[in-house]
Specification:
Layout (H helix, E strand, L loop, with lengths): L9 H11 L5 E6 L2 E5 H11 L4 E6 L2 E9 L3 H10 L4 E6 L3 H6 L8 E7 L18 E7 L2 E8 L4 E7 L4 H8 L3 E5 L3 H9 L4 E5 L6 H12 L12 H18 L10 E3 L6 E2 L1 H7 L13 H5 L5 H12 L5 H15 L2 H12 L4 H9 L5 H21 L8 H6 L4 H10 L20 H28 L5 E5 L3 E6 L1 H8 L8 E5 L4 E4 L1 H34 L1 H27 L5 E3 L4 E6 L2 H9 L7 E4 L7 E6 L6 H17 L7 E5 L3 E5 L12 H15 L5 E5 L7 H19 L2 E5 L15 E11 L2 E10 L7 H8 L3 H20 L1 H5 L1 H4 L5 H4 L10 H6 L9 H16 L1
Parallel strand pairs: 1-5, 7-10, 9-12, 10-11, 13-23, 18-22, 21-25, 21-26, 23-24, 24-25
Antiparallel strand pairs: 1-2, 2-4, 3-4, 5-6, 7-8, 8-9, 14-15, 15-17, 16-17, 19-20, 19-22, 26-27
Helix pairs in contact: 7-8, 11-21, 12-21, 13-15, 13-21, 14-15, 15-17, 18-20, 24-25, 26-27
Length: 881
């Protein structure tokens, strides 16, 4: 918008100018105690926030639409707008309205945008999930190089990784960012890919990604002569990092976040997991999109927010570094060696607030006294944690213990100056303890006890003048004054009192005086409240500076606390759930004894049911090792597939695993094709989605990959599906040469076990009794003879007539298979599908057996144990005859 009407008020002209500079965002325009929105912004915000839409004057002959939100509750409205896809420019008053009035009655208060609020730049506690990172990601490509950089400004974490454009999708799935920035030249190519993650997309000009400018930008940000101090970065990596800093400078308007130096990640240092596998295995989010029901929710026993974020990051990116994995496992064992020690550490950690986010808010000038108190409370726990860590083997966990030293001075200062429960905002005051500053104590006394001070002056003046009726009063014109009757006034006007008491006013019934000290005290009392607040603000700034001066050390300590919490939490989980340490090495071994699914086991335990553990051995010195798993639906095939993938993942996270024993040779890639869903937005059927995901596996899996596939080919015709499943299994065995589990209902595939050395048949055991199927949930060697689909359909509640009709059709189809194609050709005539008579199968009748007949005459309460045993032998003889 531009100002196009001479009748526009100065305030509205100011609004339009500021709005024109931030056309892509809703403008929160500060007016006193409210943020106001006008024109189209007001219409959109009123609808999104469900608040009243009003009017304020006219512009170009049209009513100006307006709505507003209170400043004190703006964060809640901001959260709603951000979640609905809006961006908000926060425009504050940059001067006191009284100053504006000095320039003239029509002068407008200076205003300016102090911050652009976007999904990836949130820092407020109320706008963030405590146990999740809030990543802002930059994608960069420089010729044949590509890189991805990500930052969480609420914690200061900044990382970058060299990659390829084809890896953008799986890396975005791993990071689950809130916002992604990219060059506007690549917007159309990457828009759909980013949209799949649910992140907001922000295109920037190519200049933001220029690697030469980015280098200078990064050097200026960290005040270094060269980036070599942080490592060696490719041009694409520098481009991505530079774009992040450029965007932060744009959105934060001069208040740059406290970022740690960039850390370079190697793509080969973690297990590669694509988006489909993350979704199918429900690693950090269930299929419904919530934390409930995910692996993370089932195993998270962390007691700090930073520990929870770290654990989520490790589950999202398991390590492939044996030294890292073994160090983490050693830390767990150290905790498990002493239950009391583990409990002490967790008790201390439980009292540690989130240092990382408190530091970030203080650095961005969005913090307050409570953030200082959070750091104070965490520092108070450091000595107890250090004392516990000193009990360790010196070579173990030493870096964590060292990171918690050096804060005694800061801890003492914060402890001395802050009250136990400080206010949220600086402007609320009252957060500095009494006795810390004499001037503050005096100002508070005057503010809170002004009447008592004046009463003291009144008694003194009465004694000094000998006038007992003398009073000190107050009005809005004179302020504080001494009042006495006309009779006594003559004494005060005479020497020597007239030198001390200054005449102010004479009324019909009284005479009023003042003194120099009373006038000075009046000023002190009237200004005591603002003076006390100013002194507290100064002390707050001093404390904040002391904290920020130690920011790098505090960030290091906060990271140590997070790692300590993650290790202690996994140890606590192992102890409470009876998990075991896995053997992890660089072989092709994959052997799990009595493995369990952590999420399913937790759900069953809540219902009082046991989980049936199963073994799995995919070990192979050379070549592939694949288990072909058959058996009915509902028997637990999918659970078995997933639990083995999750056990491998947990082992490389550096965790104990839900098994009796486990030996995992390093897994380089984890692939899962489980479940069925369409993608209507892209015009993909369920079968097409299945084939796309299968193609990705066959094209990418290497010989150290772990692949789990469930029901490949079921989305198309029987013989098409069987052919695809057959060829897929052969490709995994002969070309990919990986370890894997392949579940299917195509029993014809079991013949491949005789032809392919690396294929082993396994089945989920069931029992059939009187037409009913009983699931044993036990995985055994061998192949299932059938799928028991009709029995499962009956359990699902299909009408009895449909189930009986299905049995008839199934018998006919199976008989047709045995007799050949000619029989199949006449099947439609034998079983007319639309014949009411044919669709109603005769009701089943059960003839009483001779064993049941004999049992009717038995009276268990009237026979001896010996007679009961005789009855049992006779019944057995009848069955065998």
């Amino acid at each position: 918008m531009t100002v196009a009407n001479a009748a526009v008020t100065p305030m509205m002209a100011q609004y339009l100018d500021i709005k024109a500079a931030h056309a892509g965002a809703l403008l929160f325009y500060r007016m006193g105690d409210f943020y106001e929105l006008f024109f189209d912004d007001a219409v959109q915000a009123a609808e999104a926030l469900d608040i009243a839409l009003t009017k304020r004057g006219k512009h170009l002959g049209e009513d100006i639409q307006m709505c507003g939100v209170p400043v004190h509750s703006a964060e809640g409205y901001l959260l709603t707008l951000i979640r609905k896809g809006f961006r908000v420019a926060v425009c504050e008053q940059l001067e006191d309205p009284a100053e504006a009035k000095k320039r003239g009655s029509k002068s407008v208060v200076k205003r300016g945008v102090v911050r652009l609020v976007t999904p990836g730049t949130l820092t407020e506690e109320t706008l963030l999930e405590a146990r999740r990172h809030n990543f802002l990601v930059a994608l960069a490509e420089v010729r044949d190089e590509a890189a991805i950089a990500w930052v969480d400004i609420s914690t200061g974490e900044l990382r970058v990784m060299e990659t390829t454009a084809s890896r953008f999708a799986p890396e975005l799935a791993r990071l689950a960012p809130s916002e992604v920035i990219l060059s506007e030249n690549r917007y159309s190519d990457l828009c759909d890919l980013i949209g799949d993650t649910g992140a907001a997309i922000t295109p920037l000009t190519p200049a933001s990604f220029d690697s030469a400018s980015a280098t200078k930008r990064l050097e200026a940000f960290w005040r270094v002569q060269s980036l070599d101090a942080f490592g060696t970065f490719t041009r694409a990596e520098v481009s991505a990092l530079g774009a992040l800093i450029d965007y932060l400078e744009l959105t934060q308007k001069g208040h740059l976040p406290l970022l740690r130096p960039p850390q370079r990640e190697a793509s080969g240092g973690m297990v590669q997991i694509d988006a489909a596998t993350r979704r199918n295995l429900e690693l950090t989010r269930s299929l419904s999109g919530t934390r409930e029901g995910s692996l993370l929710q089932a195993i998270d026993r962390t007691v700090t927010a930073s520990g929870g974020r770290l654990l989520e990051g490790r589950i999202s990116a398991p390590s492939r570094d044996l030294n890292v994995i073994r160090d983490r496992l050693d830390a767990l064992d150290w905790f498990l060696a002493d239950a009391a020690r583990l409990d002490r550490i967790r008790s201390a950690l439980r009292n540690c607030p989130d240092i990382q986010r408190a530091l970030s808010r203080l650095a961005l000038d969005r913090g307050g006294p409570r953030d200082l108190a959070a750091i104070r409370n965490a520092l108070a726990e450091f000595p107890a944690i250090v004392q516990t860590l000193k009990e360790q083997d010196p070579s173990l966990l030493s870096s964590w213990e060292k990171a918690l030293h050096g804060f005694d001075g800061l801890s003492a200062t914060l402890e001395d100056l802050l009250v136990a429960e400080p206010s949220l905002l600086v402007r609320d005051g009252g957060f500095i303890a009494e006795g810390c500053d004499p001037d503050l104590d005096e100002a508070r006394q005057l503010r809170d006890e002004g009447r008592g001070v004046i009463a003291t002056y009144q008694r003194r003046y009465a004694d000094e003048t000998g006038i007992g009726s003398l009073k000190i009063r107050h009005n809005n014109v004179l302020g504080y004054f001494i009042e006495t009757t006309s009779t006594h006034a003559e004494r005060m006007m005479a020497a020597p009192l007239n030198e001390r008491f200054i005449h102010r006013q004479t009324t019909a019934s009284a005479v009023r005086f003042t003194t120099v000290e009373l006038s000075e005290m009046e000023k002190k009392i009237l200004n005591a409240g603002s003076r006390a607040l100013d002194i507290e603000k100064g002390l707050y700034e001093r404390l904040k500076r002391q904290v920020l001066d130690l920011a790098p050390q505090l960030q290091h300590a906060a990271q140590a606390l997070a790692e300590l919490d993650a290790a202690a939490a996994l140890a606590f989980l192992s102890r409470s759930e009876d998990w075991t340490r896995p053997v992890v090495d660089d072989t092709r071994t994959f052997r799990i004894e009595a493995g369990r699914h952590p999420v399913v086991e937790k759900a069953l335990k809540a219902g009082g049911s046991p989980f049936i553990a199963n073994d799995c051995d995919l070990s192979a010195d050379l070549g592939s090792k694949l288990w072909l798993l058959t058996g009915p639906n509902m028997a637990g095939k999918s659970t078995f597939l997933r639990q083995n993938a999750l056990i491998a993942l947990l082992a490389q996270v550096g965790s104990h695993v839900p098994a009796g024993a486990a030996h995992i040779g390093l897994v380089s890639q984890l692939f899962s094709r489980v479940g069925a869903a369409d993608d209507l937005a892209r015009g993909r059927s369920t079968f097409m989605v299945e084939m796309v995901e299968t193609a990705a596996i066959l094209n990418q899996a290497d010989d150290k990959a772990l692949v789990i596939l469930d029901e490949i080919g079921r989305g198309t015709a029987t013989y098409d599906g069987l052919s695809i499943a057959w060829a897929t299994l052969e490709h995994l065995h002969d070309v990919n040469r990986c370890r894997g589990l392949f579940a299917t209902h195509y029993h014809e595939l079991t013949e491949l076990a005789d032809r392919l050395d690396g294929v082993v048949n396994a089945t989920v055991a069931v029992k059939e009794w009187d037409g009913e199927v009983i699931f044993l949930h036990e995985v055994r060697q061998g192949a299932a003879d059938r799928s028991y689909g009709v029995q499962v359909a009956r359990l699902a509640g299909l009408p009895r007539s449909v189930v009986d009709r299905a049995r008839v059709v199934l018998d006919a189809l199976e008989k047709g298979d045995r007799e050949g194609g000619a029989r199949k050709a006449t099947l439609i005539d034998d079983l007319p599908l639309f014949s009411a008579a044919a669709s109603a199968a005769p009701a089943r009748t059960t003839q009483e057996s001779i064993v049941e007949d004999r049992l009717r005459d038995v009276r268990p309460d009237e026979i001896s144990p010996r007679e009961a045993l005789d009855v049992l032998y006779r019944l057995k003889a009848l069955l065998d005859s």
